[in-house]
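Illustration: PAS domain S-box-containing protein.
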Amino acid sequence: MMDQKQFDKIRAVFERSGVALTLVDMSLPEQPLVLANPAFLGLTGYTEGQVLGLNCRFLQCDDDNTATRAEIRAALAAGREAQVILRNHRADGSPFDNLLFLHPVGGRPGAPEYFLGSQFELGHCKAGVGAVIGHTDQLSRELSRIGAVSEHMEMGSRRQLAEMAAALVRAWESRR
Ligand SMILES: Cc1cc2nc3c(=O)[nH]c(=O)nc-3n(C[C@H](O)[C@H](O)[C@H](O)COP(=O)(O)O)c2cc1C
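Result:
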């Protein structure tokens, strides 16, 4: 089990981060949010009090994300990282396309205690592939800080994360 000190460290990294970060407790029924940082609240327009304790699917409203949701459930069940794109809605009802990064945190390999989620809004202010790579760089640094990757995230796996995200975004752009 993660001790309080480690949890507080994650909270401190979340508070300071410029990228949207959320932490979900995988041991609780419904996999609720236990942390949501200021960048996530800014992106979605919700307050912390409105979101903590909820499963993050509340952002989907009635959108048909069937295939993507199945992909997420499979990754969560296997305890492995994933990147997906989902249609979400802000508190004011406005839609956005969310490039979601999921990373296991704590626990055992294949059975993490938590999952970290990072949300990146696609399609605003010409936020193209370059902006996505900037996001993955920052996310990689935060993952190293909280110890979600052994020691420092290897350069190779950083690049791999950036490349996977860029490929996903290019495919998404070509479908629009
Ligand atoms: C850490 C974490 C962050 C998540 N963030 C989002 C999110 O920002 N938007 C979203 O639509 N779903 C998000 N999800 C996915 C949903 O919580 C849920 O796992 C997904 O919809 C699949 O489950 P379901 O088919 O039971 O809804 C997140 C999941 C986790 C574990």
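Reading the tokens back as a structure: Residues 4-124 form a domain with the Beta-Lactamase fold (CATH 3.30.450.20).
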